[in-house]
User: Fold this.
Amino acid sequence: MTLNQTYDKSNSILQMHGLSHQYTEVLSRILAIDYAKHIISNNDPLYLALEDLKVSQAIPNSKESIFKLRPHVLEEISRLFDYEIPRYLRYRYTYDVYPGMKRVGNYPPLVQIEPSSICNYRCIFCYQTDERLTTKKNGHMGFMDINLFKNLIDQLEGNVEAVTLASRGEPLMNKFLPEMIAHMDGKFLAAKINTNASLLTEVLSHAILSSDLQTLVFSADAAADPLYSKLRVGGNLDRVVGNIKRFYEIKTAHYPNSRLITRVSGVHFQEDQDMNEMVEFWSQYVDQVAFVDYNPWDNVYDAKENSLLAPCSDLWRRLFVWWDGRIGPCDVDYLTTLSNELYPDISISNVWNGDTFTNLRTKHLNNQRQDLNPCSRCVLV
Ligand code: SF4
Assistant:
């Protein structure tokens, strides 16, 4: 049977079962892949993902529908080669579903790596406004060494699919960024960089576009001044727009087959941010425009304690490695008070399954997040 015949056959079977078009397309691609036949265990995240997708489709809106392919996930899948889809679904299932199941795999679904904790902006909602972080003598400021980065990437390859370069600082400030991107090439299916785009040169644009990075996120919370400058203190909207526009033009002219998804993402911080205006303006240059909700990153250690008891999903979803190898569960804890773990003294898998993270999870599961600072002041669940 040819690949096309296999597609047709699996497509018609799925349609007979009343599965909607978006899933039909995705599932038929999966079924057409020989690799999918090698699912050997019903504990395999891919097996569970496929089962869940069937439930999601068979009983729309059912509470039993655990795993849903949301539009941005379908967009990511649409850009993958067929042989990559099973790997991607395994990752996506652990990312979306494991936190709800309170299940811990050998590695975190997502690892965030910080090429730089230094930033050239002082956005009003960001921890970069806290001098405990930015004062040099406190030791939090610096750039990741290229050898440490490569060592870390080599450990993650084959074990983790989602790696984001970004955290407390601006990643494009690290002069080794092109080498970092090149070293990641071909190793992950959900590699991402978050940047304020102020330092996005022509050379860097080519370095990014000639790699297989999957997503590039530009942080911007407004489409016009004076709001942009008021929120992104130290930023220059004209330069940022110029850089993003040039990136779009280079992508269109020189990399027509690029699989990269570009997104403008803003923090929803105050009422006068006009989402429609944002979408209309930035959609000229990027594939997606989105807002994330504000969390009191800028003053979390001094914020009022809240009464949240629900466990924080991030403890089952991701892990952060700072520029100096320090490891933490999140960037809300930007002064790294919740963990003393240090890479490469300990492996990522051993941290993820070790005492520090297990104790944090246990506290959260026992309704004791209020005993932890900054968890007691954080709104993430
Ligand atoms: S609840 Fe705690 S672990 Fe979770 S994001 Fe907030 S500070 Fe981090």
